[in-house]
Amino acid sequence: MSGGQIAALIIAIILLLPGGCFLIMGIAFLGEHDRIARDVAPPALIVAAILLSITGLLFWVAFRRRRAGPAEPPPPAAAA
Q: For the chain, which terminal residue's Cβ has fewer other Cβ atoms within 10 angstroms, N or C?
């Protein structure tokens, strides 16, 4: 793993907490009968979607395989 992949993994793990909290809060406020709570739910769900999509992108960056360049040998095959 390169340094950039490790940084992406750490940031993705950190962003999971606020994204999950906004998601849970948005879902919980959807069922409330209070007008203020109903008004807060859609923005909370939008923020959750943004944070969790950024988290997914960072996890993809952290776990993707790097392609071998022209001077690099191909990675060894995994033993089954």
A: C
pTM: 0.73
Percentages (nearest 5) of helix, strand, coil residues in the chain: 70, 0, 30
Cα gap 57→41, rounded to integer Å = 24
**Positive or negative torsion for Cα 50, 8, 58, 20:** negative
In a domain, 33, yes or no: yes
Q: Which of 21, 18, 40 is nearest to 29 (CA)?
A: 40
Summarised one tens digit per residue, pLDDT across range 14-71 is: 999 999 999 999 999 988 888 888 889 999 999 999 999 999 999 999 888 766 566 6
Give domain status of residue 68, yes or no. Answer: no
